[in-house]
Each structure stands twice: as structure tokens, then as C-alpha cells.
Amino acid sequence: MIIRKYGYVLLCLVLSMFLAATLISCATCQSVKALEDQVQQALQEAKAAKATAQDCTQKADADAQRAENAADRAEKAADDAAASAQKAEDMANKAEAIFNKAMQK
Hints:
The protein is rod-shaped. The protein has one domain (27-100). The relative contact order is 0.03. With 105 residues, it is an all-alpha fold. The longest helix has 76 residues, at 29-104. It has two helices and no strands.
């Protein structure tokens, strides 16, 4: 009888210790909620960063296209200027030839 009585007490004590250890080691609902809020906030920040990165990529692509178009226009203008300079040089040579003919007479 005495062994049974102390056995029940010992068993209750051991079970109480396991229950206390389990309850102490478990996270409270508040800490779980706080962690969930932090995760949600981090997820929102990540989504915002992704959207910003995509926007920057699109702007960079548009800027690159504009720069390429400007370079093409500058190259065309340089070619036109070179052609005009050649035409002016040809006209100057013709004028000089006419002047020299007139001076020989």
C-alpha cells in the first residue's frame, strides 16, 4: 500500500514536471503572432523591392533604347555633315577652276 501511495505521488510528480517543461518550452500565442507579423512585413518589403527592381529594369531598358536612338541620329547627322563638307569642297574646286579659266583669258 505504501509503495502504491508513493508510486502515485511519484507518477503525478513526474507527469507534472513533463507538463511544466512542455508548457514552458512552447511559444505563447503572442510570440507566434508577433513572429507571423514580422514574416508578413518582411514578405511585403520583399514584394515592394521586387516591384522597384522591375520598374528600374524597365526604365533602364527605355533609357538604353533612347540612348541608342540618339546615337543613331548623331551618326546620321555626322554623315550628313561629311557629305555637305564634301559638296562644299567640290563647289569650291569648281569655283576655283572657273576663276582660273577667267584669269587665263
